[in-house]
Design a protein that fits this description.
The chain is α/β, with parallel strands linked by helices. It has 2 domains: about 170 residues, SPOUT methyltransferase, trefoil knot domain (Alpha/beta knot), CATH 3.40.1280; about 60 residues, Trp Operon Repressor, Chain A. It is built from 8 helices and 9 strands. It has a 5-stranded parallel sheet with strand order 2-1-6-5-7, with helices on both faces. A two-stranded antiparallel sheet has the order 3-4. α5 packs across α6. The chain is elongated. The termini are far apart. The N terminus is likely disordered. Bound molecules: S-adenosylmethionine.
């Protein structure tokens, strides 16, 4: 299932600013990405020519009549493991064998990986080609890891497959590409985990009072320097309360 190419005009415009990011997601459950590709920020990024996203069905690289991609683990144990053959063939179909081109990242989704952060999303957004490997069953044969440049986890919990992890990382990455978000770089600069490393300050919209809860007076004052100072101190207060680890 290949996503549609962006209109040439928009694609050309963004090519001047940054080469289009190519994303391949390899999965044994490609249908999981159908809504994700048509209904999310990813659809918008593709339409604007900021990236292309290809969903690659691992089963196409499966072995034998039944296109087998898994087998039982040596040494015994529950469940099945993903086999080397289909994974090497699938990844090499996108980037060839051996040395990776600079700018190519191969991301293995894994609970054993380093926890994916905003800095990683920024770094993937600056790449030229990113391949996401979605595991399944009891995970990958350990030798498949040699294909990866990065092992990323999305948190200390175990999911059934890597599809949701890959989708989360693709979303966090493509929204950083130039031209994808309406507000431009300013839309992401002041967000949580931005350059100051803090969480974003609380935000409010109309009405000014709801069920007795009032919007802080300073936000209605129109005094931009006071608003900025309030936001900075609230960002720090919130971070100390919810994520003190970010201050260390
Ligand atoms: C059921 S899990 C395998 C878990 C493995 N047996 C273990 O104990 O670490 C199947 C696949 O889901 C994906 N996955 C599960 N949890 C994940 C997480 N927290 N972050 C990233 N990927 C995850 C990985 O691709 C993994 O290979």
């Amino acid at each position: 299932m290949e996503s549609k190419a962006a209109p040439l005009g928009t694609a050309f415009f963004f090519a001047i600013i940054q080469a289009m990011l190519k994303i391949d997601v390899i999965s044994v459950q490609p249908k999981m990405f159908e809504g994700f590709l048509t209904e999310s920020i990813v659809a918008r990024a593709v339409k604007k020519g900021a990236c292309e996203v290809n969903i690659v069905d691992l089963r196409e690289f499966g072995e034998g009549r039944w296109r087998k991609v898994d087998d039982s683990p040596y040494g015994g144990g529950p469940g099945m493991l993903m086999k080397c053959g289909p994974w090497f063939a699938a990844v090499e179909s996108r980037i060839g064998e051996g040395v990776r081109a600079p700018g190519t990242r191969v991301v293995m989704t894994s609970p054993a990986g380093r926890k994916f952060t905003q800095r990683d999303a920024e770094s993937l957004a600056a790449a030229e080609h990113v391949i996401f490997m979605c595991g399944h069953y009891e995970g990958f044969d350990a030798r498949i890891e040699t294909l990866a440049t990065d092992l990323f986890s999305v948190g200390d919990f175990v999911m059934t497959g890597g599809e949701l992890a890959a989708a989360a990382m693709v979303d966090a990455t493509v929204r950083l590409l130039p031209g994808v978000l309406g507000g431009g770089p300013a839309a992401t600069a002041s967000e949580s985990f931005g350059r100051d490393g803090l969480l974003e300050a609380p935000q409010y919209t109309k009405p000014p009072e709801f069920r007795g809860m009032k919007v802080p007076e300073v936000l209605l004052s129109g005094d931009h320097s006071k608003i900025e100072a309030w936001r900075k101190s609230e960002a720090r207060r919130l971070t100390e309360k919810e994520r003190p680890d970010l201050l260390r």
